User: What shape does this take?
Amino acid sequence: MAACIRGGVDIVQLREKGLEARRLLDRAGVVADQCRPAGVPFILNDRPDLALAAGADGVHVGQDDCPPTVARRILGPEAIIGLSTHAPAQIDAANREPVDYVSAGPVAHTATHPDREPTGLGYLGYASAHSRVPFFVTGGASPDTVGAMATAGANRFVVVRYLTEAADPEEAARRLRSAIEDALAQTP
Assistant: This one.
C-alpha cells in the first residue's frame, strides 16, 4: 500500500468482506498508519461503526449495507460517505442521500463482484450527467482502459487488481496516474 501511495494513489479503501470485526479493526489500523502521514484519505468498506473505531476518514457502503443516512449519523458531518451504484435509478436515488461520492459500475466484469453484470461504458455518461456528487468508475481500470472511461465521462477511478497484482506496485501506480492524467488532458 505504501508503494502505491508513493506512486500516486490519492485515496485508499480497505475492502475485506470476509474478516470478522476485530481482525478488520487491526488491519484498518495498519492502513490508517500508512495513509495518515501521507495525507491520503482512508475509507473503510461497509462498516461505519468500525470506520469510527478505526479513525478512518469515511466509509463506503453498498446498496444492501448500512444506509448512508445512518452512516452519516455515526460518522458525523465531516466524514466521507460513499455509495455504490449499478444502475441509473440508483444514481437518481443517491442524489437524495447524504453522500460525498458514488461509485459507478462495474463497467467490466470484475473478480470483486463476479456475479454482477457489467454496466458498460454508457453508464458512466449517465453518472456524469446526473450525479450531484463526484463519481468513481469501478471495474477494469488500468492504463489501457482509462482513456475510454474518461471519454465516456469518468475522471475518478477505483483500481484493485492492476495495483495489487503488480510486481512493482509503485511503478504501476505511476503508470496508472500518468495514463489518467493523459486521458483527462485529452477529454473536453
